[in-house]
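In this supplementary section we document a worked example of the pipeline. Step one takes a protein sequence of length 162 as its only input; no multiple sequence alignment statistics are reported here. Step two produces a three-dimensional model, which step three serialises into structure tokens for compact storage. The input and output of this example are shown verbatim.
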Amino acid sequence: MLLTAIDASSTSVYLTMAYFAPGQEMIDALCDAAQRGVDVQLVLPSVSDFSPVLQAGRSHYQRLLDAGVQLHELQDAVLHAKTAVIDGVVSTVGSSNMDWRSFSSNDEVNAVVLGEDFGDAMQRMFRQDRADSHAITAQAWAQRSAWQRAQEPVSRWFERWL
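The serialised model returned by step three reads:
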């Protein structure tokens, strides 16, 4: 459902995800939406209780940034939210992370709500999370440490099992 909504988006895609290791199809959808002129923004964790998932997600940052996706990492708190709001009308809240285990083997539940009133409330929450976050710019991302760079491809290789 989320992939279809992103593919059909025309104005905005706002995702807040605690675990972000989405796989190629989702990365393609997010990049395609941004390149169509859709405002695509993600709020993701700056810290995690499981570093390989964090690094696997970060391994996609360069491609996302190059496509025009805005990335933000939540500061000073552990991110646990798993929400999406597309075009201010399609919203989802639930237990599903954006990782292979949530898609394939975990028992997860998400509520999908269609409507502008709920979408407006979701967008307000997203904006608050974004305000509490640090923007990841292409320039800053290019200056990350050699250690972080080395972890990313290794973590991505294991992405399907994280």
